[in-house]
Design brief:
mainly beta; Methylamine Dehydrogenase, Chain H; 5-stranded antiparallel beta sheet; 4-stranded antiparallel beta sheet; selenium binding
Length: 484
């Protein structure tokens, strides 16, 4: 491992919520047994059906392995559950009075926020609190809540993509108290905020938070239109915040290669002054880093578009929609939602990631979809990829949300991006529903292998097919825990 100077910070594993260090999480973390999956109703049914959070048994010794064992259904329609976050994580490690027992569920479309009780019965979480959109709008002026992170103070912070009207021009962060989850107000201070928000990650040792930006909710909620990019309705910037004063210090324009920067991650090592952000439309990954007191960014991964025939455009971008870092900061994983492959990069040299694993798990290039590859600059695909079948079921869509086991050996993937975009780019996906797959990871040399015995089919929901987006373990994971 290439992080963790100074070693383990705690005197024993499991003291307080989370872990004392990333190393401790790897060494002492138990194997994941439950997965919470955010499941969205297809767009055509959002006014008659309810989104749900599905609890999935992923314990291979269990008789209900790979089955949905409970479903909490949202009391309102049209929410679009998206990402989630814990009330506490490893940033609160050592505080025996705190427990990771509430899961915060911001809603992309309704601006509502749910809080679920996962502590009373982890196998069947129930509603603890509803924060209504009227309260969000009135108390913060924000809308389209996205990423939720706990803070070392015990409070919860949620990024919002735009203003309460969904027009953009203003973004920010909601601050909740960590007990009753009342809205405290806005985290950000000062007159200047980014035009669009999305994801964020903080690194207190450098007094910094980095955030990214998506686009105007009133635009992307109706589907993707290329002209909207030229009209400035999508972002190409990441933002540097002073963690102490809560003020915007710097914005870094990534240019056209950095269009629609989504997931942003510092290295897990709390002393690190660098991280990565994936640019969806640019199909690139940028490294951001501290240099002479300022922050800068450089493109370190560039996945070229493929020239195609039979698609809506003459060229198909890979669409890097998700990135994830292993807890030892050795591997970076990315999802290419349109091309259909997951890639694993060795980032021992953070400025020069090395591709060490690749696996196609669907995508638009399958030969039964009648899209022909005319030219592949990478030389990886001559014409098509084979459609993927797992346990006899054809896997629809492309890889999107990823979650990695604490020991880095198992990578889980779901395939829904955003319900209206799913319908636009993968019309069969809303009809048949999402799936969850597991990929075995070679943590020594690199390499990805599909587990043929693991399949969770969200198409067999009693109410009809569901679109599974984010997936999260009940005990914390690579994308939720932050160390101080």
């Amino acid at each position: 491992m290439n992080l963790l100077p100074g070693g383990v910070l705690g005197d024993k594993c499991g003291k307080g919520p989370g872990y004392a260090s990333p190393e401790e999480a790897i060494r002492c973390g138990s194997r994941e047994t439950l997965m919470y999956a955010m499941c969205i109703v297809p767009p055509s049914q959002r006014h008659i059906r309810h989104d749900c959070m599905a609890t999935v048994d992923i314990d291979p010794t269990s008789p209900t392995y790979c089955q949905v064992i409970s479903r909490w259904r949202a009391p309102y329609k049209g929410d679009e559950l998206h990402h989630s976050g814990w009330n506490v994580c490893s940033s609160c490690h050592g505080d025996s009075k705190k427990s990771r027992n509430r899961l915060i569920l911001p809603c992309f479309n309704s601006d509502r926020i749910y809080v679920l009780d996962t502590g009373t019965d982890p196998r069947s979480p129930q509603l603890f609190r509803v924060i209504e959109p009227t309260d969000v709008h009135k108390k913060t002026g924000l809308g389209a809540p996205h990423t939720s992170h706990c803070l070392g103070t015990g409070q919860v912070m949620i990024s919002c993509i735009a203003d309460a009207n969904g027009n953009g021009g203003k973004s920010g962060f909601i601050l909740l108290d960590g007990k009753d989850f009342d809205i405290i107000g806005n985290w950000e201070k000062g007159p200047v905020t980014p035009k669009f928000g999305y994801d964020f990650w903080y690194q207190p040792r450098h007094n910094v938070m980095m955030s990214s930006g998506f686009g105007a909710p009133n635009v992307w909620r109706s589907g993707f239109v290329a002209d909207h990019v030229d009209q400035g309705l999508y972002s190409s910037s990441i933002h540097v915040w002073d963690w102490t004063t809560h003020t915007l210090q710097q914005s870094i324009d990534l240019g056209t290669d950095g269009l629609i920067p989504l997931e942003i991650r510092f290295l897990h090592n709390p002393a690190a002054a660098e991280g990565f952000v994936g640019a969806a439309l640019g199909s690139c990954v940028f490294r951001f880093f501290k240099k002479s007191g300022e922050w800068a960014a450089e493109k370190v991964i560039d996945i070229p578009a493929k020239k195609v025939e039979g698609w809506t455009q003459a060229e198909m971008p890979s669409l890097v929609t998700f990135i994830l870092l292993s807890l030892d900061d050795r591997f970076l994983y990315i999802s290419n939602w349109l091309h259909g492959d997951i890639r694993q990069y060795d980032i021992t040299d953070t400025s020069n990631p090395k591709l060490v694993g690749q696996l196609f798990v669907g995508g638009n290039l399958c030969k039964d979809r009648n899209i022909k590859v005319l030219e592949d600059p990478e030389g990886m695909i001559a014409t098509h990829t084979e459609p993927l079948y797992v346990k006899g079921l054809r896997i629809e869509g492309g890889p999107q949300m990823l979650q990695l086991s604490l020991d880095g050996k198992r990578l889980y993937v779901c395939n829904s991006l955003l319900s209206v975009w799913d319908q636009q780019f993968y019309p069969e996906l809303p009809k048949k529903g999402s799936t969850m797959l597991q990929i075995d990871v070679n943590t020594e040399m690199g390499g990805l292998t599909l587990n043929p015995n693991f399949l969770v089919d969200f198409g067999d929901d009693p109410d009809g097919p569901m679109l599974a987006h984010e997936i999260r373990y009940d005990g914390g994971d690579c994308t939720s825990d932050i160390w101080l």
